[in-house]
Amino acid sequence: MADSPPRIMRPTSPHLQIYRPLITMMMSIVHRITGCALYFGTAILVWWLLAAAASPSAYATFSTVAGSWIGRLILLGYTWALLHHALGGMRHFIWDMLHGFGPKERVLLAKLTLGGSITLTIVVWAIGLAIKS
Predict the structure, then answer these.
(1) How far apart are CA 115 and CA 109, in angstroms?
(2) What is the pLDDT of residue 21?
(3) What CATH number should be reported for the domain holding residue 45?
(4) pLDDT digits (tens, 9 = 90+) for 102-132
(5) CA gap 87, 91 in Å, rounded
(6) What angle (nearest 5°) sits at the alpha carbon of residue 125, between those of residues 48 and 68?
(7) Annotated binding site, which residues?
(8) Ramachandran quadrant class, 22 (left: phi over 0; alpha: psi -120 to 50; beta: rest)
(9) What is the number of domains present in the chain?
(10) How far apart are CA 27 and CA 32, in angstroms?
(11) Containing domain of residue 57, as a range?
């Protein structure tokens, strides 16, 4: 052990405090977060399916919870997370085809992912509310 070479001082890895947040970096982080959120949202989907299959009273309980303001807020968030994650997956698919790697293309794809997910969420909810009325 006494003959071990001295440690070489290497530069430490930069941390988030050093980097300026870029839209592509933020979209990468949000893509991971929405992926995790979809696990919890899928539990809501399973609850809905089980309630529909179980009994009218079980479905009424689900409808009461999902129809409350907090339930609708959670469903709105789930809808956005699902659409954002899907569009982020399409962005990654474009990259897998070796397209969109230029600086302008990366930023454009990130902005389209964010704007598209918000727009599609509004459209889906507008259609859903119009059908319900």
Answers:
(1) 10
(2) 83
(3) 1.20.1300.10
(4) 999 999 999 999 999 999 999 999 999 999 8
(5) 6
(6) 50
(7) 85
(8) beta
(9) 1
(10) 9
(11) 23-132
